[in-house]
Design a protein that fits this description.
Order of helices and strands: HEEEEEE
Largest sheet: 3 strands, antiparallel
Distance between the termini: 41 Å
Structural class: alpha+beta
Radius of gyration: 14 Å
Strand content: 25-35%
Number of helices: 1
Helix content: 10-25%
Length: 66
């Protein structure tokens, strides 16, 4: 049971995304992760090329347009 709590404490928050350089607009850095500043922040994913239709770029990320 101790291992469960230790691994849960080390896991990133559910709304965290891996930080790649600066965090995207609407997100703030927390260690190796970017956290959404509010529930209104759109989803963000690391950008590996052009962002898909309906998404915009913000640094090294694509942000879902709302």
């Amino acid at each position: 049971m101790w291992l469960f709590f230790a691994s849960a404490a080390a896991a990133p928050p559910a709304a965290a995304i891996p930080r790649v350089g600066s965090c995207p607009s609407g997100y703030s850095s927390s260690g190796a992760y970017c956290l959404a500043g509010s529930d209104d922040a759109g989803r963000a994913v690391p950008r590996g090329g052009p962002c898909p239709s309906g998404w915009s770029s913000s640094g090294a990320y694509c942000l879902e347009s709302r």
